[in-house]
Design goal:
Largest sheet: 6 strands, mixed
CATH topology of one domain: Cytochrome p450
CATH architecture of one domain: Orthogonal Bundle
CATH class of one domain: Mainly Alpha
Distance between the termini: 58 Å
Number of helices: 16
Bound molecules: protoporphyrin IX containing FE
Number of strands: 13
Oligomer: single chain
Strand order of the largest sheet: 1-2-3-4-9-6
CATH superfamily of one domain: Cytochrome P450
Strand content: 5-15%
Radius of gyration: 22 Å
Amino acid sequence: MQSRCVTGGMLPDFLDDEVVAAWTASGAPLVDLLRQAHTPGRLTGFRRGGRAAVLVTDPRHVHQVLGVGGERYVKRSHRARPLLGDGMLTATGEAWRSQRRLLQAMFTGRGIQRWEHHIAGAAARVVELWAGRARRGEPTDIAEDVQFFTVDTIWRSLTDRPLDRETYVDLAAVQDIVAALPADVGGAAALPPEVGAALAALDERTHRAIAEARSRHTAAGEGAGAHAGDDGEGAGDGGNGNGNGNGNGNGNGDGDGDGDGDGERGPSVLDRLLDAAGTDPAYTDRLIRDELVTLLVAGYESSARTLTWAFVLLDRHPEVMERAAGDARAVEAVLSETLRLYPTGWLLPRHAPADEMLDGLLIPAGTDLLVCPYLTHRDPAVWPDPETFSPDRFPARTPLPPGAYLPFGIGPRACLGTRFAMREMEVLLGELLARFTVETTEPAGEPVFGINLRPAGPLYARVRERA
Ligand code: HEM
């Protein structure tokens, strides 16, 4: 490590260029380079292709970049833009703000109550599937089952339509597209041609769903504004707590102050988008498609992988699995600890468009900042014995330092679906653990640090009804 002056500004400890060159030559994943650069408590970094990248892992720095500086450190051309277009995850500035304002209230603790019946219906399907597997003594692929569940819940919530097998196959093929996206910063200019068919099928499904919803809208004789206000939703930025119960707020307004009405069934997300299209020309069919795909991809991938990780960890800790059976608080703690060890959003890149000061250091304009929850969640100063799976850490007895725990991000760009994700995962995991014992038949695959952090391959297990 050495200190360097880069583009006239003082940057922190940098990896020697030779180390970076050796890593590049090895073809190793980005996480290996980050592990080499990482020094707890310090800003470190490296240069690649003439660009400076600063690794941000200390909770104080994380809080500064994503929380306090959340509007100044921006998302550069997003790695997922070729798939997600201009939806909420990739949009910036006023376009992002207005999209977020439109949907925020639907995803608060109270807002998601409208989708309880979708979550319950989707969970019942998996319970029924497992009951059949248990009766016949057949193994099941947990990774596939939880993925079906999360696609089912989000698709029903987005469109108010049940998920059939054919639609599922087309929607789930998104994972091939996601796998083709670069884990690294710098963005993908275009998707590789081999995922063209998957993208076409996805677009066909989403456009069909939009057309169907629009004709329902028109048939209802209401047109634009058909649902505006029918559930009393305000447009204000409501709560978006991070669901871990540890007081590590995300700076986005915690709690349920969403101005929502009865919190019962209301319009679907697609209805809300079509209403917006009636009054705001920005909501073209293209943008509605982008928002739908964004919510679909953001909404199923991470939840499915987190549930899979939870089963991987529980399989290694049968005593925890037993304790969690029938205990909702223990289930929540298992999920929070799973998200600590395997935050699916393991890397949250940002970019400094102008010079910034961070912890007394000048971050020159043009620098990439790599916020890495995966490493932050292993800070021994906050998490003693960090590699150990220990759900007893949750809920934290004393409030965690801001920026220390961020599986859903923090600050203005924190996850819109935190509450939804926690609720759907708690329901499914709770029901499955209460009713079945689970034993994997093959070891879990290695972690893959792509755009998401996922276990490689399927996760086969035998499930048995509890006596
Ligand atoms: C375990 C499940 C989930 C995890 C771990 C997760 C994680 C995250 C993280 C870390 C971010 C912030 C990205 C950044 O700062 O660069 C994010 C953003 C986002 N997530 Fe999630 N997410 C999950 C589930 C969901 C669900 C179910 C939905 C939709 C219903 C969703 C929708 C979004 C959206 C729209 C954003 C972008 C928000 C914005 O930029 O304003 N996520 N998510």
